[in-house]
Amino acid sequence: MLKPTESAVSKQLDRIETPAAIVDLHRASANAARVCAYLRDHGLGWRPHVKTHKSVEVARIQIEAGAAGLTVATLHEAEVMCQLGVDLLLAHPPVGRAKESRLSGLLQRTPLTVALDSGESLATVARAGADGGQSVPVLVELDVGMGRVGITDPGELTRLASLAEERATTSFAGLLFYPGHIRMSSFEQGPALTEIAERLGTAIETLSRAGLTPGIVSGGSTPTLWRSHEIPGLTEVRAGTCIFHDRDSVALGAGTSDDIAYHVLATVVSAHPDRAVVDAGSKALAREEFRAGGGGYGLLPDHPEVRLVSLSEEHGILDLTSSQWRPAVGDRVRIVPNHVCVSVNLQDRLFSPGPNGLRPVHLEGRGRQQ
Amino acid sequence: MLKPTESAVSKQLDRIETPAAIVDLHRASANAARVCAYLRDHGLGWRPHVKTHKSVEVARIQIEAGAAGLTVATLHEAEVMCQLGVDLLLAHPPVGRAKESRLSGLLQRTPLTVALDSGESLATVARAGADGGQSVPVLVELDVGMGRVGITDPGELTRLASLAEERATTSFAGLLFYPGHIRMSSFEQGPALTEIAERLGTAIETLSRAGLTPGIVSGGSTPTLWRSHEIPGLTEVRAGTCIFHDRDSVALGAGTSDDIAYHVLATVVSAHPDRAVVDAGSKALAREEFRAGGGGYGLLPDHPEVRLVSLSEEHGILDLTSSQWRPAVGDRVRIVPNHVCVSVNLQDRLFSPGPNGLRPVHLEGRGRQQ
Predict the structure, then answer these.
(1) What pTM, to 2 d.p., does this model score?
(2) CA proximity to B303, closest of B272, B354, B268
(3) What distance in Å separates residue B366's CA from the closest CA in chain A?
């Protein structure tokens, strides 16, 4: 990929209507390569969650870097990503008739593994498998203490795994967990990685004693990414945010500011002695709390001392009291959101600066297409 | 409009894939009629902000009820709504070349008034007017203390109004304010309505003394809607949320729970002794704080004692500890978001139950279409 000249890029960026989401695919590729190198060194696979980007083009970057497959949260994401011909993992329990028929269609088109935590969801998957004339690999979801989806008790987890193995159109393929509540930094509450690893170890042991040794142990997230090798039994990591990074992931130490590959370009539309108002609000950045605390809805990489103190739907308010910088109406500002996945989800498309102008990066997996 | 039978509706709702946004257009029509009747009684116009729904069909309901025009925040919303042939108000200051050329195209197609608070934005509008060969009516925006867009000082406001009047391709049409920071309930902080009215009165007086009596005084929001008659000088109200209502607007007393015309239908995908997990998260409801405090990301109208305590992107966590209700995996749940405008903005389309099945309500004004 040709790196565009700085002057061509800035001319394009001056011209585009704001708010506009800008992606740096060179950085995204470098991020993907770094993740793959680390995981390969430790004998782990990467199955990145596409919820971060929802883009076939970005997924291709991940696969070319060495991702073993992709993780999806919605059936629409799965339908879009199956053109890439890699193994997909649906990491959200499908339930009910509408999901069942859509899933059965999908099974004709792509190898798909499904994570779930209930007999009801297993029944949905089994019926979809029967419709599609095949057996669907199932991961049972372990709750390592977050209290979202998942089974806490290893015995109960093992019973569901057995059930998946016994049914004609499903098979037990392993387990999945999500440590979204982990304490990775001193400013967070939650259990340490060792505690998560312990719960996981007990579950693996219980399953194995029942003759259900998990082939796949799927875990991880961007905050825990670089400590994946400390989790015994883990086989693959689903970390998604690490392709672009954001204010949260950098604050948690999962990336540096040089790794950030996404920002929203905004224009100052109103300027005052101690504040400026930009045209990026909650409909461009999303109102997500900063995980490190202290507030603010994004980082201004060119003016890190400025606080984005509040968001309306189409306005962002910059508090300039800690800064010497006094922007004029019309000035452009780059903003890194707290949480990139939900900001990307608000865009029609991303823009990638290139030698021939700003090129759209399509977000084919956006929405649901019921 | 034919009201669908209850049984037909529930069959359709059982079938649809979730999360799905459901709109009750009968209630929306009743809401619009109620707003228009109140404002008409007080000699005020309604220029509803379409940011809430972004739908031509819903805008048509507002116009048929008697709305005098529509308010938009983005040029894309304006481009979509101009097919309705009513006066549009752009309530977000356009700045820069990209906006200028788009605005000039728009001026060929629709009568458009623009609100702004700076010479730079006025220059953008004036150039767009010149390109379009016409004079653009301008509202100057007064800051009544919120600290977003707007000019606080009445003298400065008057100078900008003068400038708008002097330029060949703009004219001064009045003033606009937004009391988003007002204290409407005991649980809120901020100034009382009388304080807002006082600031507005001073601005109107200062403009009038300079021979710039504002023809239009555009204000209001859903929280202040029913007290609009207490604001001397006001000519029109932009309240948008009142077409659908939400948990916030009901908590603020702007509507009752019977007025709520929008909810997200979700499915329980994981059930536990004290919690249930639904498939509507921040990508369906939006993570918006409840204005009345006390947390929670939405209201369950059928189980108001249940708290929607946390959202992941595709998961909502229901805390069942205060409820006798214990849903099973597969059960359907209706959720009213805290803030309807940002939830609608996350949908591909809304669904309206009707005698012939669920019918899509299109959101043509969604996104930006740069």
Answers:
(1) 0.96
(2) B268
(3) 9
**Any chain A CB within 8 A of the CB of B22?**
no
Beta bridge partner(s), residue A266 = A333
Three-state DSSP state, A286: coil
E strand residue ranges, B250-356: 262-271, 275-278, 298-299, 307-311, 316-319, 332-337, 349-354
Strands B298-299 and B332-337: antiparallel
Going by C-alpha positions, the residue among A204, A98, A219 that lies closest to residue A158 is A204
Contact B74, B112 (CB under 8 A): no
Q: Is A195 exposed, middle or buried (0-12, 13-18, 19+ CB in 10 A)?
A: middle
Write out the two tokens for A216: 């796949």
| Res B18 pLDDT > 70 | yes
Q: Which of B92, B340, B347 to mutate to test the interface with A (most CBs of A within 10 A)?
A: B92
In this model, does residue A294 exceed pLDDT 80? yes
pLDDT grade for A94, boundaries at 50, 70 and 90: very high
Per-residue pLDDT at A12:
83
Question: B286 and A287: CB-CB below 8 Å?
Answer: yes
Inform me whether the C-beta atom of residue B93 falls under 8 Å from chain A C-beta atoms.
yes
* Helical (H) or strand (E) element with A99: helix A97-107
List, as ranges, residues 175-194 from A with C-beta within 8 Å of B.
Answer: 180
Determine the Cα–Cα distance for residues B152 and B181; give it in Å rounded to an integer. Answer: 14
Q: Is A317 on the interface with B (CB under 8 A)?
A: yes
Q: Give per-residue pLDDT as tens, A192-215.
A: 999 999 999 999 999 999 999 999
Tell me which residue has tokens 């010149």.
B130
Given a cut of 80, whether residue A8 has pLDDT beyond it is no
Give the side-chain half-sphere CA count within 13 A for B145.
16
Q: Which of A120, A37, A47, A50 minimizes the C-alpha distance to A79? A: A50
Q: How many whole angstroms separate alpha carbon B26 and alpha carbon B22? A: 12
Per the listing, tokens 């095949």 go with A134
| First and final C-alpha spacing in chain A | 36
Structural tokens at position B36? 């228009």
Return the percentage of chain A with pLDDT > 90, whole number.
88
Is pLDDT of B299 > 80? yes
Q: How far apart are CA A265 and CA A231, in angstroms?
A: 39
CA dihedral A342, B344, A300, A334 (to 10 degrees): 100
Provide the pLDDT for residue A3: 53
| Closest-approach residue (CA) in chain B for A342 | B283
User: Do the Cβ atoms of B209 and B250 come closer than 8 Å?
Assistant: no
Strands (E), chain A: 20-23, 45-46, 69-72, 87-90, 112-116, 136-142, 170-177, 216-219, 236-237, 262-271, 275-278, 298-299, 307-311, 316-319, 332-337, 349-354, 357-362
Q: Which two tokens stand for residue B339?
A: 């803030």
**B15, A112, A361, A264: CA torsion to nearest 10:** 70
CB contact under 8 Å between A348 and B341, yes or no, is: no
DSSP symbol at A339: -
For A232-272, the pLDDT digits (tens) are 999 999 999 999 999 999 999 999 999 999 999 999 999 99
Nearest residue of B to residue A151, measured between CA atoms: B272
Nearest CA in chain B to A94: B269
